[in-house]
Amino acid sequence: MARAPFSLALLQDSAAPTQADALTVTSERIRTAAGRGAQVIGLKELFNAPYFCKKLDPARFDLAEPVDGATITGMRALAQELAVVLVVPFYEKRAPGVYSNSAAIIDADGALLGIYRKMHIPHDPLFEEKYYFVPGETGPDLRHDAHPGINGFRVWRTRYADIGVLICWDQWYPEGARITAMLGADLLFYPTAIGWHPGEKATFGDTQVSMWRTAQRAHAIANGCFVAAANRVGFEPEAGTDGLEFFGQSFIYDPYGRPLAEAGTDDTTLIATCDPALIEEARRNWPFFRDRRIDAYGPITQRWLRT
To answer: What pTM value is reported for the model?
Structure first.
């Protein structure tokens, strides 16, 4: 049976000063997007805090919340009220000393379907994520009919679409996109916090944005599915550094890699209609899955081949 098109919204915005403020402001933006017809709504990476990984500070572990904390509990109630699917990235406290960069997938009835935990953890100047996050693994599925997932990658069957979630640094790895598409995702959604070092912007800024968008557009084309990324915007200072300027430029691409919606560098909400019938059409015309040489790909599981 043909599946109905769904309306996807991405919230691109700057960080609120406190977690309580972020929950209030984001809830209102979700209400507005739902009022515009959005059925699936995605938020930026670590949506309810400034990007805290710019320095090593043990006090910042206090920003983490359990999955049954105020943020996810509030978002579940909102999803049920508005009958929308929400992808809510947050800093997850799993146990004392065990913290993940996570996203909760909430169905349109408010059910918490499960948690995706960021698989690839970067370590770069002002992106000190290895200090704050354990690498992801297969997280909990909270509904019995969900696919069990493979090595941390998973797809959730929501009311409106089958959604795969990957987070920020994951977006540079074609393996994660391919596996998640093979698990049946209509949509690969990448919550993101990517920006410029101010001193590098003039020289590398345009190239960095082009690389970021091109890599994910390629995921849409190579896998014949919808790909979307919600990035944050705004300058976030950090004492003793030049801070980071998050560049926004969120997008939604169709299975041919065509832009359905693209943002600039300001707070905005992108909304586009995604028709799953286009996935079938794209894969018939560009049969990459048919022609894959799965008998020849064993070496991809090695770290390096030339010795």
So the answer is: 0.95
